[in-house]
Amino acid sequence: MAKTLEIKLVRSLIGKSKDQRATVKSLGLHKLQQVVTQPDNPQTRGKIEKVSHLVEVVEG
């Protein structure tokens, strides 16, 4: 089974830059406290690194 990451949006996007908003949207997050599952690959890790102050990650 492939490794996955559970990503949860814990901080608001109000006042954040357009590129950070786009990154959160590309992860599949739309609402606060929403949790999505993404594959554990370098592309996803890079997105998480860019918005690490807005999300929490659990390795699954």
From TrEMBL:
Gene3D superfamilies: Ribosomal protein L30, ferredoxin-like fold domain. Residues 6-55 form the Large ribosomal subunit protein uL30-like ferredoxin-like fold domain. Signal peptide: none annotated. One of its GO terms (biological process) is translation. GO terms for cellular component: cytosolic large ribosomal subunit. InterPro entries: Ribo_uL30_ferredoxin-like_sf, Ribosomal_uL30_bac-type, Ribosomal_uL30_ferredoxin-like. Keywords: Ribonucleoprotein, Ribosomal protein. It comes from the Bacteria. GO terms for molecular function: structural constituent of ribosome. The keyword Ribonucleoprotein applies. Pfam families: Ribosomal_L30. Part of the 50S ribosomal subunit. PANTHER family: LARGE RIBOSOMAL SUBUNIT PROTEIN UL30M (PTHR15892:SF2), MITOCHONDRIAL RIBOSOMAL PROTEIN L30 (PTHR15892). Belongs to the universal ribosomal protein uL30 family. This is Large ribosomal subunit protein uL30. It comes from Proteinivorax tanatarense. The gene is rpmD.
